[in-house]
Design brief:
- By secondary structure, the protein is α+β, with helices and mostly antiparallel strands.
- Helix 2 runs antiparallel to helix 3.
- The longest helix has 25 residues.
- Bound molecules: calcium ion.
- Calcium ion (CA) binds next to loops.
Length: 218
């Protein structure tokens, strides 16, 4: 009797483990979700991860490669909507893009100066060599001077377009929070160089950011 009971108990334990495993598989957020998302052409709208954030340069040629990336521990991101936002270089405040980045999401921001955005309309060249400098405490944000910048909620600001830079690659920002963009120039009249020469009054034009939303799959 004792042996039979032990065997029954072992079977029951095995069944419980199987049920638990099945429950985990259906719970979402795992490799099964990743595999499903990669199927039926889905891989074409999915990218991989670099430094914990979506990387549009990590793409897949087929569903198998996409699934394999996740099976080996890679995190996949589903591309969502893409929109554009004009950053007004004459506006001394943060500008609300209307994009709310969720906790499991991120945005990839590519910015160009297609609107003559400048810190100094009479002398645009003035903005170039100085743009590599960080502005401390007298600008819209402690970030690159004379540059288009962004932040998520009140998080750390980051440059999205630096005029003096040789290239301006896309910038990735994680949620959660509201994405704001702006132009970094001196706005505190009581410190630093004497305004208004160095402030927003002589700015002009705009920058255009193309913003793509990504949602984490697994
Ligand atoms: Ca200015």
């Amino acid at each position: 009797m004792e042996k039979r009971f032990a065997a029954f108990a072992a079977l029951a334990a095995l069944a419980a483990i199987s049920l638990y495993a099945a429950g985990t598989a259906f719970a979402g957020g795992g490799n099964s979700d990743a595999a499903q998302a990669c199927q039926k052409g889905g891989y074409a709208n999915i990218v991989g991860t670099t430094n914990g954030l979506p990387d549009p340069s990590v793409v897949y040629g087929n569903a198998g490669d996409c699934t394999s990336y996740a099976a080996h521990g890679g995190t996949l991101w589903q591309a969502g909507s893409t929109s554009t936002f004009r950053i007004d270089a004459t506006n001394p405040e943060w500008q609300d893009t209307g994009i709310n980045v969720p906790a499991n999401g991120a945005v990839v921001i590519s910015t160009v100066n297609d609107g003559g955005g400048t810190c100094n309309a009479p002398n645009p060249g003035f903005c170039l060599p100085s743009s590599v400098f960080q502005c401390v405490n007298i600008c819209l944000a402690n970030s690159n001077w004379y540059s288009a910048i962004g932040r998520v909620d009140s998080g750390n600001p980051f440059a999205v377009f630096v005029p003096g830079s040789a290239s301006n690659p896309a910038v990735v920002a994680a949620g959660p929070g509201a994405l704001q963009l702006g132009f970094n120039d001196q706005k505190n009249a009581s410190q630093g160089w004497f305004p208004p020469k160095w402030a927003y009054f002589d700015n002009a034009g705009y920058f255009t950011s193309t913003i793509t939303n990504y949602t984490r799959i697994n």
